[in-house]
Amino acid sequence: MARYRVAVLGGTFDRLHVGHAALLATAFRVGRTVAIGVTTPAYLARHPKPGRRAIQSYATRRRALARWLSAHYPARRYRLAPLRDTFGRSVEDGVDVLVVSADTIAGGRAVNEERTRRGRPRVPIVVVPLVLADDLEPVSSRRIRAREIDRSGRRIAPIAVGLAAGAPDRAGARGALRAVFPRVRLTLLPESPSRQRLPPGLHARRAAAAAQRGRALGVGVVATGPGRWLVAVRTPRVELVPRRVAGDLGTGLRRLLTPSLGREGF
Question: pTM for the whole thing?
Answer without folding.
Answer: 0.87
